[in-house]
Amino acid sequence: MMVRSVRQAGRGRGFTLIELLVVIAIIALLMSILMPALGQAREQAQSVVCLTNLHGIGRGVAQYANEFRDFILPGQFRDPYAENNWASLMVNQGYANAPMADGTEPAQTGTLFHCPSASDTVVTQDSRGFWPLPDDRNDPQGYLGTAQRWTRDDQEKLIHVWYAANMATWRVDDFPFTSFPQGGGGREVLHRMSDVRRPADMVAIYDGVWAHNDGTTNNGWARIFPRHINGRFCNALFVDGHADSLDRQMLPVGSLQHEASHVRRPPEWSLALQ
Fold first, then answer.
1. In terms of CB atoms within 10 Å, which of 14, 98, 151, 177 comes out highest?
2. What is the side-by-side strand order in the sheet with 122-123?
3. What is the pLDDT of residues 128-182, one digit of tens each?
């Protein structure tokens, strides 16, 4: 009788339903605490990769200036037989690597020109030559990449780019990047690195779509787009070669015809509303 009682007492007791529910609730609570932290860590990692890309692009821009008498890489180069943009020109000169596309394959991600926080979708110009552009800094179109023309060895292809140049195609001398030849009757001139008065504050390449002011004065500021950390930060390369994350309250904004409009700005409550 005693032996049987000991055996019965030694048998393991399973979870009751209440205990099981308590364990599940604890696991769910821990998951609810950890998941946002994991998501934040993932976004931070993507931002770091993006900044690394911009550093690489900055090295290419600096190499171009060293080899071509201090001139800044053209934001766009067009002649009757070829058309290139700053990204394809970097690849053509050997400052970066990226595959050519013909418009039938998926977006070419994983290159120096792909922002990991952006969409994997690339868009092309419409029949009028316009890109789909964000209306404001909350518009999902700011996450898109662009399939831009690329001419190499007499082949006309595309290059997929998720970054944009601080460039003007009209008579705007304070923008570091220009088209060559310039459109809109502008002077055919490239700027030099030494022409930029505030290189540590002047944006060169940034998270965004196509170009800051491609022949327009409407919503050019919206093209500099905060893709990182829940839409709060935009990564940017500056003319002096450093890259930084800018709070959306510090992004360039204002009249597009003056240097003060496209350098980083101190926080203002009015900017936070945009």
1. 177
2. 122-123, 145-152, 155-161
3. 777 888 888 889 999 999 999 999 888 899 999 999 998 876 667 778 898 887 6
Instruction: Compute how many other C-beta atoms are within 10 angstroms of the C-beta atom of residue 88.
Output: 26
Highest mean pLDDT among 123-127, 211-215, 231-235, 267-271: 231-235
What one-character-per-residue DSSP string does 105-170 give?
SPP--SSTT--TTS-S-EE---TTSPPP--SSTT-GGGG-EEEEEEEETTEEEEEEE-EEEEEESS
Q: pLDDT tens for residues 54-99?
A: 999 999 999 999 999 999 999 988 877 788 999 999 999 999 999 9
Query: What is the arithmetic mean of pLDDT over 11-32?
Result: 75
Nearest Cα to 143, choosing from 108, 115, 105? 115
Average of per-residue pLDDT values in the chain: 82
The answer to whether the Cα torsion of 194, 210, 170, 74 is positive or negative is positive
C-alpha to C-alpha distance for 233 and 115, rounded to whole angstroms: 13
pTM to 2 decimals?
0.81
* CA proximity to 187, closest of 169, 200, 202: 169
For the chain, what's the residue count?
274
At 227, the amino acid letter reads R
Closest CA to 177 of 163, 156, 158: 163
Structure tokens at 154: 């007499």
Instruction: Give CA torsion, residues 174, 140, 228, 250, to 10 deg.
Output: 40
Tell me how far the alpha carbon of residue 195 is from its chain's centroid.
25
- When computed from its CA atoms, the radius of gyration of the chain, rounded to whole angstroms, is 26
Beta carbons within 10 angstroms of residue 4's beta carbon: 8
Gap between the Cα atoms of 112 and 199, Å rounded: 22
